[in-house]
From TrEMBL:
It comes from Maricaulis maris (strain MCS10). Its cofactor is heme b. Its main location: membrane. GO terms for molecular function: electron transfer activity; heme binding; metal ion binding. Belongs to the cytochrome b561 family. InterPro entries: Cyt_b561_bac/Ni-Hgenase, Cytochrome_b561_oxidase, Di-haem_cyt_TM. This is Cytochrome B561.
């Protein structure tokens, strides 16, 4: 595979950084929930630890949002290589649909988290700095709205895992069954 059929270095870097951040954020969210439950159960966890964890998650989520918007802008201005020859119509639709679903989740998850955070009582401190309070969005300040928006945001974590599983399975199929060098487009050290 020639270098003209690879993604650009910027696209590759954004792909791997955002992928690691998204997956890491889901695991970190589970850790945050454990901390919150431990606090409510009277275990040796302080409110400060819980708030620190939530603020770190929200700050990182905003970073994911900005990087994802940058990646989308890069993708729209620097089209990637086309799909490999020999793919059936349903495979082409699945590949295209999965990629656009990833963009939706990469942008939608942070926005959903921002909505849920805006409905919650404690302010969001960017980088856990009390001088950097994130303004709240104009959303209902009710427990019901906050609960629903937080639940939808949490469900997005499962969507990340499903999409990632499909994406990895398809990449492995291309690498080991189709042997079309598709993974070399996004993994610089692989040969096409």
């Amino acid at each position: 595979m020639s270098t003209t059929t690879r993604y650009t270095g910027v696209a590759i870097a954004l792909h791997w950084v955002i992928a690691a951040m998204l997956i890491g954020m889901v695991f970190y969210a589970w850790h945050m929930e454990d901390l919150k439950h431990a606090l409510f159960a009277g275990e040796d966890v302080s409110i400060g630890e819980v708030q620190f964890a939530y603020n770190a998650h929200k700050t990182t989520g905003l970073l994911v949002l900005f990087l994802s918007l940058a990646r989308l802008a890069w993708r729209l201005t620097h089209p990637g290589p086309g799909l490999p020859d020999g793919m059936t119509r349903w495979e082409q639709l699945a590949a295209t649909g999965t990629h656009w679903a990833f963009y939706a989740i990469m942008i939608g998850m942070p926005l959903g988290g921002l909505i849920a955070a805006s409905a919650a009582e404690p302010p969001t401190l960017l980088f856990n700095n009390p001088d950097l309070v994130l303004p709240k969005l104009p959303v209902p300040q009710t427990e019901g709205f906050q609960s629903i928006s937080a639940s939808l945001h949490g469900a997005g974590g499962w969507a990340i895992f499903v999409l990632t599983g499909l994406h990895v399975a398809a990449a492995l199929k291309h690498q080991f069954i189709n042997k079309d060098g598709l993974m070399a487009r996004m993994i610089p050290f692989l040969k096409g």
